[in-house]
């Protein structure tokens, strides 16, 4: 899992690439929560091929932290297999998701 950070419109876009699973979840969680301490975060998942339950937990924790801090957290760019996991698990009703990065930044 690689995370590239981009500053855009007063937010941090965290571009995740690879698999968000048991092996990569701890590092992703630490990085996302650290970013959320400073400003709003959009997690761009367009290069994420797979999300496990551990990955979902990371995203849920980030969403809760975003709400608690008042900074906000959203995701964008869900690929079909990842979107299916979000829909089946009900996470599409918990975490704000946008089709594209541009839409997430504009919201």
Automatic annotation (TrEMBL):
UniProt-recorded Gene Ontology molecular function terms: anti-sigma factor antagonist activity
Domain STAS intervals: 1-107
Pfam families: STAS
UniProt cross-references to SUPFAM superfamilies, sorted A to Z: SpoIIaa-like
Similarity section: Belongs to the anti-sigma-factor antagonist family.
Name assigned to this protein: Anti-sigma factor antagonist
């Amino acid at each position: 899992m690689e995370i590239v950070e981009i500053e855009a419109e007063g937010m941090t876009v965290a571009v995740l690439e690879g698999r968000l699973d048991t092996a990569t979840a701890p590092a992703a969680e630490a990085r996302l929560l650290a970013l959320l301490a400073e400003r709003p975060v959009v997690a761009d998942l367009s290069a994420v091929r797979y999300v496990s339950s551990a990955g979902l937990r990371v995203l849920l924790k980030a969403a809760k932290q975003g709400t608690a801090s008042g900074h906000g957290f959203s995701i964008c760019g869900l690929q079909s297999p990842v979107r299916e996991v979000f829909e089946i698990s009900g996470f599409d009703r918990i975490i704000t998701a946008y089709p594209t990065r541009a839409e997430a930044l504009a919201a």
